[in-house]
Write a structure and sequence with these properties.
Layout lengths: L7 E14 L2 E15 L2 H5 L9 H15 L4 H15 L3 E11 L1 E6 L2 E9 L4 E9 L3 E14 L24 E11 L7 H18 L5 H15 L3 E7 L4 E4 L14 E4 L7 E5 L2
Antiparallel strand pairs: 1-2, 2-3, 3-6, 4-5, 6-7, 7-8, 8-9, 9-12, 10-11
Helix pairs in contact: 2-3, 4-5
Length: about 280
């Protein structure tokens, strides 16, 4: 029986790094997934474990590398992990490292940022996904579950209407989504990954908040266009914007008019709009 392909690894390796400078502390918390490909076929077809790097060893290596590299951004930390497996094990041909970050913001106490107390940050989950082979590397970063809303300056008209269309047209609606943005870096690595992320996030929100949206598709394209203009270090960006619907609630049965003040949040079923924009 032909053996087509394999990959294996260790998922959900969680680690928090605490950096102390006297009473002033900084924290970084991540969840890491490592996936390896290479000369592992005989472990499956011949019950020979000789080439198998145990997933427990993968967990240990991630923790060791976290001591030195977790203070840096997710992208270089991912690269360090992936390169470590290629350097240590000659039969590993490709390493994929995925990182989700749990972001912590400094707690405000008496109007001042506290030295060593934190609250979980809002604004989505930063992530990185790095694939490294013997001859190439691919770096993708982004943010997922970034929930954003605008309560006006959005509409949807002029779409296909047939016997199955029940959706009314509107030029003023709530637009809300759980944004996922993933950007791929050019071959040259930037000097400041955090600055790239900050520039992209600002560009996305600027378009979303300050311009009229004729559709989610319209917003997706213009947000992606703005992100590419704001971050010269990226080659392309993919945006996914599923609808979170806010449906008007009627209280007419009780003789009350809501005057467009009450809405029912619902995200199932939802429209799912996704597009990739790339430099020309």
């Amino acid at each position: 029986m032909p053996f087509v392909q394999q990959r294996y690894g260790k998922a959900n390796v969680r680690v928090l790094r605490l950096h102390r400078q006297g009473d002033y502390h900084e924290v970084r918390e991540v969840r890491v997934k490592v996936t390896l490909d290479g000369e592992f076929t005989r472990a499956y077809t011949q019950a020979d474990n000789a080439p198998v790097v145990t997933t427990d060893s993968m967990k240990n290596l991630v923790q060791v590398l976290a001591l030195e590299h977790l203070a840096r951004a997710n992208e270089p930390f991912s690269l360090a992990i992936a390169q470590c497996f290629l350097d240590r094990y000659a039969h590993v041909a490709k390493a994929l490292v995925e990182i989700d970050e749990t972001s912590w913001s400094r707690m405000q106490v008496d109007g001042q940022p506290h030295d060593h107390s934190f609250v979980k940050a809002e604004g989505g989950t930063p992530f990185a996904a790095v694939t490294v082979t013997r001859s190439s590397q691919d770096i993708v970063a982004g943010i997922r579950d970034f929930q954003i809303m605008k309560t006006t300056q959005s509409g949807f008209v002029g779409y296909v209407r047939d016997e199955y269309t029940t959706l009314p047209e509107t030029t003023d609606r709530i637009l809300a989504t759980r944004l996922q943005a993933a950007w791929r870096f050019k071959s040259a690595q930037p000097t400041d990954y955090a600055a790239v992320t900050k520039a992209i996030r600002a560009a996305l929100l600027q378009v979303f908040a300050t311009t009229y949206s004729d559709s989610v598709q319209d917003s997706v394209y213009r947000m992606g266009e703005a992100a590419l203009a704001a971050a010269p270090d990226i080659a392309e960006i993919t945006l996914s914007m599923p609808n979170i619907h806010y449906l008007p609630i009627s209280l007419s049965h009780f003789g009350l008019e809501t005057q467009d003040q009450l809405f029912l949040p619902t995200d199932e079923p939802n429209g799912h709009i996704e597009a990739t924009m790339r430099r020309g």
